[in-house]
Write a structure and sequence with these properties.
The protein has 381 residues and is of the alpha/beta class. 45% of the residues lie in helices and 10% in strands. The strands form two sheets. A six-stranded parallel β-sheet has the order 7-6-5-8-9-10, with helices on both faces.
């Protein structure tokens, strides 16, 4: 696909994570042009299947399930994916939009959501065309209501992020987070060097960009290093091994009070942090929430601004727009976060609650129940 797009991998990441143009790039340049190929792949993958679980961006999975007459469940990883007008998503951290949001409350976000639905409807014309060719009835915009199964939807996140709303899909269940950050066979302990570093002093600040943005970090690590220096705090920088052209220079300049690491499972390192600085991806946010630590979030695109808003609303985080993530401001916010005893206590209490969730088990039980209790003819029952 990379060769067919005519752009390199880093450019793909940069375009996909751009706050204003990321969604049209992902839908119009990647998802729709390769939809037919993805459909053929899904027809092969679903041969002999009893049920299909889909993701919002897996347009072909729904097509294959319907064409085969299979049960299928939709799934979302964060409240953003449900696009509720009762609990409207936040699309951007742009100052102008933030001002309108404060001025009008949820009315602005609901109006913006309606506009986004209208604007994006033509983007998925290839999806509707393929449905007609397959003899399937048309559906509403598959980026929004049209993505959801009539049988069941799994909301794979914690109720701390958002409760069920009146306009959520039928048969929607909030399961709790289905945590995953260690592929099979990965080490179950911290690297020895990092273990020694953690044992040598106070809990450090942990800076991370998760698994996607780390491929195009810009100057995040340079700013983070300056932030930690301004505060005089110990720090761990995750993902610096793939941190761009300045990574080697940054690693070489780190004092003994700071540590550069490659990939480290967040579930292993976050409990050792004083505070966590991250981008607001739902996987990272879930792990930070479970660790019970204060968070400073600099959201870029997709669900990240909405996740950041929800953490701030919970009272466990602050957020800075990417262009506002400068050392002086970040240091001031981190200083406030770490000395706010009430915030630290609240983060710990919520963390203990989230740690007790069994999202993957709950989701598995719901899948099994659907397999045993329903058939395609009973959709929506």
């Amino acid at each position: 696909m990379k060769g067919e797009l005519g752009i390199d991998e880093q450019t793909i990441f940069r375009k996909a994570t751009n706050g204003s143009s990321g969604l049209p790039f992902l839908v119009r340049r990647i998802a729709m042009p390769f939809l037919r190929r993805a459909y053929e792949d899904m027809m092969s993958a679903t041969q002999g299947a009893s049920l299909v679980v889909t993701h919002p961006s897996a347009f072909a999975a729904r097509l294959a399930a319907e064409n085969r007459g299979l049960l299928w469940m939709s799934a979302v990883l964060a409240p953003f994916g449900l696009m509720s007008t009762c609990d409207p998503p936040v699309f951007s951290t742009a100052p102008g939009l933030a001002f309108l949001r404060e001025l009008t409350g949820a009315r602005f976000d609901a109006a913006l959501l309606a506009m986004v639905k209208k604007v994006t409807d033509p983007w998925t014309a290839p999806f509707q065309t393929l449905r007609r060719e397959l003899g399937l009835p048309p559906v509403v915009n598959p980026l929004f209501e049209g993505q959801f199964s009539p049988y069941a939807t799994l909301a794979l996140y914690s109720k701390w992020m958002g409760e069920l709303q009146p306009d959520h899909p039928v048969n929607c269940d909030i399961t709790g987070f289905a945590f995953y950050d260690q592929p099979p066979g990965a080490p179950s302990e911290l690297p020895e060097g990092l273990k020694r570093f953690l044992a040598e002093g106070a809990p450090p600040l942990v800076f991370t960009l998760g698994t996607a943005l780390v491929n195009d970090p810009g100057d995040f690590y340079q700013r983070s290093l300056q932030t930690a220096r301004l505060l005089g705090r110990r720090a761990v920088f995750l993902g610096l091994d793939s941190g761009g052209p300045d990574a080697d220079t940054i690693r070489a300049s780190l004092p003994s009070s700071m540590f550069a690491a490659g990939y480290v499972p967040h579930s292993l390192i976050f409990p050792h942090a004083e505070a966590i600085v991250h981008h607001g991806g739902v996987g990272t946010t879930a792990q930070a929430l479970r660790a019970g630590k204060p968070q400073l979030i600099t959201p870029f695109a997709g669900d990240q601004p909405d996740n950041a808003m929800r953490m701030c609303r919970l009272g466990v985080a602050r957020q800075l727009a990417p262009n506002a993530y400068i050392p002086r401001r970040a240091a001031a916010d981190l200083a406030d976060l770490t000395r706010d005893r009430g915030l630290t206590v609240r983060a710990g209490e919520i963390g203990r609650s989230v740690a007790a969730e069994k999202g993957a088990s709950v989701a598995a039980d719901l899948i099994e129940a659907l397999l045993h209790e329903r058939s395609p003819r009973r959709a929506g029952a």
